[in-house]
Fold:
Amino acid sequence: GIGRVTKHLLLPMFEKVDLLEQSPRLLAAAPAFIFGRDATAVAIAAAATAVAAANRESGKTDMEKSVELQKATQELPTVSVNGTSASPERQHQQHQQNVRDQPLERVAYLCEGMQDFEPASGVVYDMVWIQWCIGHLHDLDLIRFLGRVKAALQPGGKGVVIVKDNCCDSSVDFVVDKDDSSLTRSPAYLKALFQVAGYELRVEEKQEGFPSELFPVLMFCFTVKEGDKEEGKGEVKASP
Structure:
């Protein structure tokens, strides 16, 4: 998304955050949301970084992402600097002093889907936060994603994976919503997928205060099973 969890939860707790989002439009809007509407220079720099990341991939889809990112960046609203309208270039000059005080290097903007994401070499994560997105992942894609991030988690059980998502009633394994092409899994089904991927549950809590007519929202904290760290590439094959 545009970085709500990054801004309000993760940045106050961690030194650096990788924001993973496969929509160029949402990704281009994230820096201004996180660092303030007057941070157009930040948005431009971040979108350029995302374009470069997309260009490192191959194929037609990645070229489309680059074009979308460039277009989304150009369409970012021009904001007021000291009460007057200013172009992005002018804002960039006037905000150089302020930008120095903003922790720009704390957020990396990655234009990629979870089904394709692989942590960069040498990156170590204390936490991987997954909120309201796994409903669009096939079971195997989720297991493979968890396998890839497993190798990048802080060793010794210190790295955790947090999942916050809707869960259906335990009387069924999952519920399919054909309108938005999403899948809502039961708590048991979700935990079984993490177990297959080599994780064990540490904490489970229910989000309070949600309307009763909606799916309940649960939060899970997982760590890597002891001795299962090495299998980090997520090579899981479907049964015949």
About this structure: DSSP finds eight helices and ten strands in the chain. Residues 40-55 form the longest helix (16 residues). The CA atoms of residues 119 and 149 lie 6 Å apart.
